[in-house]
Queue: 4 jobs
Job 1
Amino acid sequence: MAPSLHRVVAVSGRSSDRALPTPWYLRRVDLLRSCKTGEVIEATPQPLSHRLRIAAAGVLIGVPVVLASQWFFKTWVPRYYAELDALSKTDPVFAARKLAEFISLLLLAPVLTCIVAAIAMTVQASRIVRAGRRPLPGAKVRGRTEVVAGWWCVRLPTLLWGSLLLACALWAWWSYVQLASMFWNGYLDKRTEVLSKTSPRAAAQSMHDAPGIPENGVRP
């Protein structure tokens, strides 16, 4: 009787230690399970000196950029617009042309930044497509990362992503060209025509060209 009692107690103890199955809605879905190669890249250790250098570089670059942007938009741009306003009273056509040039250059800076960033990311995507794996061999990661490889898991999504970035870069340049040409051919021509008719120089020229009016503008 005693051995059987000990056997029952042991079996019951093992059954109580057995974990209950996790519900299906709490299970972690791993869509890349079939694409994992089993290779794991450990996190690259970053010493404190390296982090301090990165922070110092960010401060040395970010603070001048912020100060320069504030000076440009709060000081230089209002001063430039005031100069154009004063110039429009004497030569409105030239002032309108200078305004068109300034707006075109002002819009060109963010467009070029987006294009350069899209091209850089497209080049990185092409490297991943050629390697057929992510992360790339020899890449540095911040956390423990499992290597994923395969056509459907790596190459096809990366190829679509790179094509989308390249299309966005081309669309940004096309939009800028269309906007600049519309501004130059539409707004500038109408603005020049209106200002040329209302300017003092144009009024004096029209009085000079009118028949029956002498050069001094006084009728006989």
Note: Residues 7 and 13 are 10 Å apart (CA to CA).
Job 2
Amino acid sequence: MLLKMTVALSTRIQELTSPTRREAGEGPVPYVIMVTVIAIGAAAIAAVLITYANTRLTTLP
């Protein structure tokens, strides 16, 4: 799953930073920032869920 996510992210970043995208008048910076914010948000949600799951497992009788 991690490999699949890494490949998808690297493919997307490569697509966003391609010269054809820059020639269209759109720079890659806003897209890279947006992808970074989404990735940070996903990591934060995953951390909260993992913490919640670990807490629940330790409180089970």
Note: The chain has three helices and no strands.
Job 3
Amino acid sequence: MAVRGSKELVADVEKSDIVREVEAFNSQWPESHLMGLLFKGYDGISADTFLELYDFALDGDTSNLLESSDWFDDAICACALVVSVFHAFDEISGYVGGHNAIDVVHDAALGRVMIDFARLGESADVGMSGLSLRQMSILCRMKEASVRNALSKDEQAPKGFKEGKQVFFEPLEAHQWMLQRRGYRPTELPVEERIQSYTGMNLWAGAYRGVSRHPSHCRDLVVRPQRAVGI
């Protein structure tokens, strides 16, 4: 099955879409050869980190996050890294690396963190002004046009605010509205004694703009086996 487009994935991204994108990249001979020159013992991009992030972003599974304060930041860094790698090969070999599913999961993860922190009375510094319409759509498993239409017909809907061409919403207000959507799975927040483990996790806004605080470590999360050398 072909790699699916971004608009199609917003409403129903699946783990198989992530695996398909990674496998499509790994199957390209020029890319594999060049990556082998860049990474000692390179045996392909691994989908594992992105699949873990999917569990959190779409299903609200906090198990990985509560086990390590660095897990979320590492996973977001991994997203930024793989997108950078795919873009690099767009330039080098003309291969258009599909990373739409990874982008969708990345967006959903940031959106969920903003909502959850707001529910706990905290603010999540992820380099965004609020929850975007796209993030609401992904988390509700709906098309953007459907969310926009539902918002316009609901007098109780949250009021968005514009920054440039994008519309954002206050996370807590958006969450209350999203609870009425069948596809939205709110996070089951940690019990009180573990809340600090959640809100105390490392959030590094620079990483969400594509700048990793530990580039070699984030490469290890994506590249098999874990013996990466500099790009």
Note: Residues 204-215, 226-231 have pLDDT under 50 and may be disordered.
Job 4
Amino acid sequence: MAALLTSGALATTCAWQPFAAASKAAPLIVEARVLRYGGTSGDPPTPDYMDVQVLNTLKGRAPTKELRVYGDNGGSGRRFVSGYPVGTTWMLALTRDFDHWPVKDRRPQVYAFPSCADPGLAVIGDTVFGTLGEPFNSSRPRQFFLQELQYVWKHPLGR
């Protein structure tokens, strides 16, 4: 589990924000299973994007049941998609902020990881693992029940 939570090296020096910060700004939060990787860039080559199957929508509205999610291309300050192994399930905070981003594909099902923020929490069964940050009083990786987080995002208090 530790490898899942610490993978996805960064290629920038921006101030990193935990998942809670990414989720506030993200228009879409989904529980999704990683289906495949695609595209390559960098040296050594790494995948540019991953296709995910939406299992549950926690915030916003997913336009389709399968989304394409772009990660880091070597200098964008986003997580690399290779840190999310094929077949694993994640709670993902996603954005359509493509400023300063070479992605030409602007179809409705195309999203990206937010810049300078941790976009994902690992989901295994009914448990979520990761670093949430405030308001969950979690500055290091820990586990939460999926139902707790689903409730928080579907019934936000003070947002």
Note: Strands lie at 28-41, 46-59, 66-70, 89-94, 110-112, 120-124, 127-130, 142-145.
